[in-house]
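Following up on my earlier thread - several people asked me to post the actual chain instead of describing it. Fair enough. Here it is, all 279 residues.
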Amino acid sequence: MISRFLGFLFSPFAAVLIALTMMNGLGTPASASTTPAASAAAAAAAKAAIRQLLIGQHGTDHHVSGLSEEIKGQTKVESNTWSGYVDTGTGFTEVNGTWNEPSVTCGTTEALAAFWVGIDGYTSDTVEQDGTLIECYEGTAYQYTWWEMYPANAVQVEGEKVAAGDHIYAVVSRSGTRYTLSVTDSTHSANSFTTTQTCTSCANTSAEWIAEAPSGYPLADFGKWKLTSSSVAAASITGTISTFPYAEITMVDSSGAVEAQPSALTDGTSFTDTWERSS
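Reply from S.P.:
Thanks for posting it. Predicted structure:
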């Protein structure tokens, strides 16, 4: 059958296209001879672009194309902006995962890659999510921790000193209408945060482990992103990704060429997402 889902129709990162386009031309590409003041200015400009994400500017072209294959509770689908795994059901109360922050290769073109866990967004217009974000800006990589509760707010940048190899643990948990979003960077603790938010209209109908390409922007070359030790809970059931009905999502461009591809699950808890191309 043909499968279609909203996915990250409400992605906060879609607005980076607007923000970064406005920032182009503000300086020369970063180089080895860049002065500290110039480097600081570039970092500030990159951060400003992230902070200018507008909650109302969401992509309208996110879709799954092609044939959806269902095998033993698993669905294989294609997406324009997501790569990874999604569980579906009702009453999700927690999703978590661990990874080492990937090492990115930046060219001269602005590019982005977000790695996150979350509840909702696959078939709903609410999202509760957190993780890390890589931004290639004027040839330099900037890496952050962040969270978001859509539609309550835009992306909230927390840590600004994430580096390749940092050990990251991200979790979103729910008790009634209260959501606790937490990212722990055990390598550089200043990037860690915990926040508690309230949502009375959140659907709680999916849980995600995703590498994302911001809508309308090239996917940064992150090489490989390996998610491990993940777990998920819904109602009274706690298990792994494969405990619930799940979708394996491959990111493809408009012509169907693969941009990022997840591996098969290991023990239901782990997988490796591999970058293939930017767009």
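The chain has one domain: 12-275. That should answer part of your original question.
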